[in-house]
Amino acid sequence: MAVITYREALNQALAEEMERDPDVFLMGEEVGVYNGAYKVSKGLLERFGEMRVVDTPITELGFAGLGVGAAMTGVRPVIEFMTWNFAILAFDQIFNAAAKMRSMSGGQFRVPVTFRGPTGAALQLAAQHSQALESQVAHYPGVKVVVPGTPADAKGLLKAAIRDDDPVAVFEGEMLYNLKGEVPEDDDYVIPLGVADLKREGGDVSIITHGKMIHVALQAAAALEKDGVQADVLDLRSLRPLDTDAILATVAKTNRVVLLEEGWAFGGITATIAAMIQEEAFDHLDAPVLRVTQADVPMPYAKGLERAAKPSAELVVEKVNQVLYR
Amino acid sequence: MADDNRQDSVAAVAEAEDQSPEAARAHDHSEEAEMEAVQPDREAQTEHKPRLSDEERLQRLEPDKLRRMMYDMLLARRFEEKTAEAYALGKIGGFCHLYIGQEAVAVGAIHAQRPDDYVMTAYREHVHALQCGISPGAVMAELYGRADGCSKGKGGSMHMFDVEKNYLGGHGIVGAQIPLALGVAWKIKYRGEDRVIQVYCGEAAVNQGAFHESLNMAALWKVPMILIVENNRFGMGTAWERASSLYDIYQKASAYAMPSTVADGMDVLDMYRVTKEAVERARRGEGPTLIEARTYRFVGHSMSDPVSGVYRTKEDVEKEKGNDPIRIFADLLARQNILSQEELEKMDEEVKRISEEAAEFADKSPEPALDELYTEIYANEDVNGRLYFDGRKR
Amino acid sequence: MATKVYMEALSPTMEEGRLVTWLKNEGDEVKEGDVLAEVETDKATMELVARGSGVLRKRLIGEGDTSNVGTMIAVIAGADEDISALTGTADAVASQAPSVEEKAPEQKLEQVASGGDVGKGAAALAAAGQTEQDQAERGTPAQATPAGAAPTPTPDARTRAATGEGQPSIVPAGGQGTGQDNGRVKASPLARRLAQEAGMQIGSVQGTGPGGRIIKRDIEQAVAQGGAQPQAAAPQPQPQAAAAPPSAPPAAPVPPSTDARYREHPLTQMRKTIARRLTQSIGPVPHFFLTVEVDMGEAMALRARINERFKDQGIKTSPNDMVIKAVAMALRKHPFVNAAWTGDAIHLYEQVHIGVAVAVEEGLITPVVRDADRKGLTEIAAEVKELAGRAREKKLKPEEYTGSTFSISNLGMFGIEEFTAVINPPEAAILAVGAVGPKVVVDEEGNMAIRQRMRVTLSCDHRVIDGATGAQFLQTLKQYLEEPMMMIA
Prior knowledge:
The structure holds 3 protein chains of 3 kinds. By secondary structure, chain A is α/β, with parallel strands linked by helices. Chain A has 13 helices and 14 strands. Chain A has helices at 6-20, 44-48, 60-72, 84-87, 91-98, 101-104, 134-138, 151-163, 213-226, 244-254, 269-280, 303-309, 313-323; strands at 2-5, 24-28, 53-55, 76-80, 114-119, 144-146, 168-173, 180-183, 197-200, 205-209, 231-235, 238-240, 257-260, 290-292. In chain A, the strands form 3 sheets. Chain A has a 7-stranded mixed beta sheet, sandwiched between helices. A 5-stranded mixed beta sheet of chain A has the order 9-11-10-13-14, with helices on both faces. Chain A is globular, with a radius of gyration of 19 Å. Chain C has helices spanning 84-87, 90-94, 98-102, 105-112, 120-138, 141-149, 155-163, 189-197, 216-225, 269-282, 297-309, 319-333, 377-392, 398-401, 467-482; strands at residues 3-6, 16-22, 29-30, 35-40, 45-49, 54-59, 66-68, 72-77, 287-295, 339-341, 346-348, 354-356, 358-360, 363-365, 368-369, 406-410, 429-433, 437-442, 448-461. In chain C, the strands form 5 sheets. In chain C, strands 9, 12, 15, 16, 17, 18 and 19 form a 7-stranded mixed beta sheet that branches. The longest helix of chain C is centred in the N-terminal third of the chain and has 19 residues, at 120-138. Chain C starts with a strand and ends in a 7-residue tail after the last helix. Chains in contact: A-B, A-C, B-C.
């Protein structure tokens, strides 16, 4: 297995899927000549030409809708948002069109469009460019949402998203593009949607998270280990579908849960999972389910404030100690 | 007034190689018309004065085709009247927007393209659905929310679809269908297909960002899209003059170097002619066209809006009814001995019967089974994990 | 302006009420303060008064029906006022002003979905639908508050109502609380399951989690030590009656253990309350019991003299009145017995309010003799007689049966010699009083003698009272009863 970056893994996935299926094309701002704002699409224009790697005007609503309309009639667009923050302009097309087209037509359409782009805070990008919006998109039935946290998952999940017959939103980690890891070179390395991955095996407590936050969780788990606490770190990978069996299994094993997400707490994915756990694993709980999320404020610019607003390994350790009654 | 200059503007569907706004304006307008466009004269607009001769209007169309257009407009009218009746009886729920008065637009325009071309529109859509060949029974059953509806009862008045008939719906967010249609047009181009898409929006939708974003890309990439703006002069209760700094909608296309024109939306033949030209341009790979169809709705915005009242008077509406597109067309066909009064009445009886039968069909159609609640949300449910989170049994 | 009539919380523990009698008919003129109906609460039959004036337009429940507190049960409004928005009933719709009916269908539709259009209309529709109701509620603020703010007393509220100054206070949810719930064992769901699997009574385990929460490790430890009380041993073998039903119904329905035929006896409000309260008690409150035998010779003689003396005034004291007086006096000396466990503190009451269990049809109620330590014997006797009488008629007011700091249960009249009573939480103790009767005893000189004797058993909450504390209280009590003059000495 080759060790490549998260960015290269995404690039591989795109190239392989475009090679495999002539109906797949990539469209978005700066994806072509510029090679992608984050260089994910590097070299693709040269390789696949202008019809398949399409630079758009800055017009998120427009090209998101274009992707949905094209997908309705048979092709497989991959729509890149420079960041999901900008996709807010396009949410009407994702929520009102992509998510509902199949249902409101009585099942007449498949909408195999992939929306992708980076989510979450990078460093000092301030309020409008630092949002983790995956739970908002996952709110809508009709859409699927994946959130890869490692290079291998990035490749496998993007390929699965492109091949899936429903709209899939891929939330990449802006801070993860340079992350290196082993990635299978197999052209058919597809990670099925809805399969969580136990990134670390523990037994005393379950830290359940996704995306970039798995690295925060692993950091916290390492610190806890020194203190004699072994944590399960469950990477959800898909938010919708959600691997509830994996969640219930780790809860049944450890009886104590800390949920971690980069976004806000209100209506967050962790809120959904906490509700699900108490509904379905109540008798396995030895402590309340606790959450670590971003501070409930728009992201400030100043370095110290930003650090304080983000979920941290320290906060995770603190909550773990609470559920362990330590 | 623009209508008076219609000939000029139609003739001036801009040449692809000469798309500068300057050029477009020079083609489209006399200076006088420019002035009037800024200060629209409603009197002039409401008086229907076709400038073409009967012969020119008929475009040497086969009598059968002309009669078919008449039949389609009549069916549209009677079907919508039946819809209003069913709504009043509580058979139809939700929002319901009727097409009465605007029939010439969809009937004329859809006659100008082929069955393998696509049609997409907003929520005043029953007639577009019929015109694409969806059976009146399936449309009415959809309105009734029944299993035999064209969207299996899951879409309703605003969300009718028939993928077989290339009718791509019925969309409820003002203007949001235009980017979708752009996507279909893109797909046509991507796959090199010999097809076009007609997409409709109301005049009020042109103030949405989606309209402008789509026009830009459509013109930039020269996709085969015909955008028909049905200007019925009111966005709900807001008169167009009160909503736009520019009166002439077709001029908005010039900002995107897109050819555009005005069509008489009360004249099915004018709609046909103008659309036909645009469709052919699109097929030739010359890109999109915007058509501003000037029309009028004789009914309220929706079933909850009275025909007249706060934003227009009864007299306004009565006056416009003098330009009833069905009467205008019937007069022409009678004058030209294509359809006699007797034949027209017979035709009217038939479409009334069809509308009645559609309602009977809808009434007999079953409600969607409750286990349909969780079907057709996703195309691929063969995934691990959970897709639905309501904790209900299914 | 219309006034909604709610099932009101007419007792501090009332969660639902049964409407016994409507005293006003539909169409009757009603003035604010008029009695609309009699409602049977969990404790008594209470009067429901009108919170607004007008005509009783609609009764939404019938006599004999039970409604939860906070449920709308009637509407008072002007004679011609449109109340369809309040009642939502078909006949109310029919009574709409005819002008509405006459409007064209389109106009009516417009009313429903005013300005209704795609997206935007839906919100307007919802808002419009609520306006009328909101206005109706705003029109009667005085009435809206009690039913709206405090549909059911929280456990905290119950605690305070019982321990305060006798005012039935209802604290809205979210009010200041102690963090500890007297009526409930705090345990993690997992701990509960493990305890059940181990056949262990969870209340017998000491919790080490936050706020004393019993968590997995506590159960594991208890299992390891084998020290936990097995569930099977939970029922106490002592005879228990009025104050302590032999076995309070468990929280969850028990599957029938026999196929024998049975009749189903419906639960009264009172039976439900007894079950709930006593189940709460035997679980978390670690009881222990102290019994002492008291020589009642002097007390009975004194009682006879007093009764003789006050015969003209129609006053007759009972042995129980003597006990009440003596208990009240003894409690002043032993504050820990006149106390309550609150979770993070012990409240030692500075007043002595004695609850006296009174058997009534289908249950019991505990009227309260307030400041019993400051009242004379005859005063106590008269008060108890009066309260007990009204208790049997279910005419007690809430403040008359709440707020006790200590309770006495006497089954002497049934010939019960000795029994244990279940503590009425959050009180720390209850005294179970047996019958006074002749017994052979060995006196100080070693001679056999026949004396009037009585056995009393003190049930103590061990969280508050230790063995010696309880014993000392009983010593004082015994002294007071055996030498009544010590009470004034």
